[in-house]
């Protein structure tokens, strides 16, 4: 009679079969990891187009640094340096124009804040209106941690103390009850 292969994917025996199985499994995991990494990493083509780049490398690095501090109005939580939106391109060109005109970094940021409001800044300054935003996050984290600590403290406090050993009377009663159980039930 001819044997049919077992549906189990593991090799039946032998080091060679186990090595092949491990190699196939490893190859699958590497492929999955590769796909996951390529999905979540930014693409190699940056949003800054070649025609936007300034000729002076020092000015270009300033423009890139400023672009990373400015929010894309279309993409919301993405900097204009990373965004491919047409408005982000216009803002990158505006930053480069202001730098080419001789403005320092603060003047460029002030110019954009005047035109678009503080929302254009990815990291708004700590001042009266934004102070609550800066303080609310740590307050919520501290409050949540304190609440969790109190919950666990009460939970552990309500647990019974160490379990005490059986008294001699309880031990004798347990042995009597165990003796009454037939052997067929005692083994299960």
UniProtKB/TrEMBL annotation:
User: What's a GO cellular component annotated to this UniProt protein?
Assistant: membrane
User: Which GO biological-process labels does this protein carry?
Assistant: cytochrome complex assembly
Q: Where are the transmembrane segments?
A: 21-48, 131-151
In alphabetical order, the GO MF annotations are: metal ion binding
Listed Gene3D superfamilies = Cytochrome C biogenesis protein
> Matching InterPro entries, A to Z?
CcmH/CycL/Ccl2/NrfF_N, CcmH/CycL/NrfF/Ccl2_sf
- Key words, A-Z: Heme, Iron, Membrane, Metal-binding, Signal, Transmembrane, Transmembrane helix
What's the protein's topology in the membrane?
Single-pass membrane protein
Q: Where in the cell is it found?
A: Membrane
Instruction: List the Pfam families hit by this protein, alphabetically.
Output: CcmH (PF03918)
Main location, first listed in the record: membrane
Q: Where is the CcmH/CycL/Ccl2/NrfF N-terminal domain?
A: 36-178
Q: What does this protein do?
A: Required for the biogenesis of c-type cytochromes. Possible subunit of a heme lyase.
Give the record's family classification: Belongs to the CcmH/CycL/Ccl2/NrfF family.
Q: What is this protein called?
A: Cytochrome c-type biogenesis protein
């Amino acid at each position: 009679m001819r044997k049919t292969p077992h549906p189990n994917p593991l090799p039946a025996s032998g080091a060679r079969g186990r090595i092949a199985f491990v190699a196939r499994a490893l190859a699958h995991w590497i492929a999955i990891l590769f796909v996951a990494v390529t999905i979540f990493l930014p693409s190699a083509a940056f949003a800054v187009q070649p025609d936007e780049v300034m000729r002076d490398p020092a000015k270009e690095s300033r423009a890139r640094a400023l672009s990373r501090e400015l929010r894309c109005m279309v993409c919301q939580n993405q900097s204009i340096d990373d965004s491919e939106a047409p408005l982000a391109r216009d803002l990158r060109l505006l930053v480069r124009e202001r730098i080419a005109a001789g403005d320092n970094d603060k003047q460029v940021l002030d110019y954009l804040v005047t035109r678009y409001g503080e929302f254009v800044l990815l990291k708004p300054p700590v001042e009266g209106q934004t102070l609550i935003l800066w303080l609310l996050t740590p307050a919520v984290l501290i409050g949540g941690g304190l609440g969790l600590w109190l919950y666990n403290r009460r939970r552990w406090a309500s647990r019974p103390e160490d379990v005490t050993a059986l008294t001699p009377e309880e031990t004798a009663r347990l042995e009597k009850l165990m003796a009454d159980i037939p052997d067929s039930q005692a083994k299960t």
